[in-house]
Amino acid sequence: MRYDIIIKDVEIYRKGEYMIRREKYLQQLIANRDNGFPKIITGIRRCGKSFLMKEIFREYLLSDGMKEDDILILELDDDRNIRYRDPLYLGEYVREYCKGRSKCVVFLDEIQMVYSIVNPNLTEGKHVLAKKGDSETVSFVTVVLGLSREKNIDLYVSGSNSRMLSSDIVTEFRDKAVTIQVFPLSFSEFYEYIGGSKTEAIYEYMQYGGMPLAVLKNDLEKKEYLKSLFETTYFRDIVERNGLRKGEALDELCNILSEGTGSLLNAERIANTYRSVRHENIDKQTVEKYIWYFTDSFLLKEARRYDLKGRAEIGALRKYYFADTGLRNARLNFSFPDEGQMLENIVYNELVYNGFTVNVGTFDNIEKNRMGTSIRNTYEVDFFARKWNRQYYIQVTDDISNAPTRARELRPYIMLNDQVRKIIVINKPIGECLDENGYTIIGIADFLLRFIRE
Question: pLDDT tens-digit profile of 37-46?
Answer without folding.
Answer: 999 888 888 8
